[in-house]
Amino acid sequence: MIELYVLKSLLSRNIFLEYNYLLDDYFLKEEQEETFLIYQSIKDFYRKSSEGDIGSVDTLEQLFHAAYPAIP
């Protein structure tokens, strides 16, 4: 449940840039694979886009399905 709150907070670019170093990619990949894939979608968006926030969970869902279309 806490993962949902952490991911929702990362929808803001400023918060993502300030706190993303605290998330351990290896731990997420090994222990929380679904959370890791969502986090990767967020990271990829901010890496490719120079401005703007993701803004909503709906936008995040679209980004996730664009990156991983085979996962329901």
Major sheet size, sense and barrel closure: none
Shape field = globular
The percentage of residues in β strands lies in: under 5%
CA-based gyration radius: 11 Å
* Secondary structure category: mainly alpha
Topology:
Elements: H1 2-9, H2 13-19, H3 25-31, H4 33-48, H5 57-67
Question: How would you sum up this structure in a few lines?
Answer:
The protein is an all-alpha fold and 72 residues long. The chain has one domain. The model has no long low-confidence stretch (mean pLDDT 85).
Task: Write structural notes for this entry.
The protein is an all-alpha fold. It has one domain. 68% of the residues lie in helices and 0% in strands. It contains five helices and no strands. It has helices spanning 2-9, 13-19, 25-31, 33-48, 57-67. Helix 3 (25-31) packs antiparallel against helix 4 and helix 4 (33-48) packs across helix 5. The longest helix is centred in the middle third of the chain and has 16 residues, at 33-48. It is globular and about 30 Å long. It starts with a helix and ends in a 5-residue tail after the last helix.
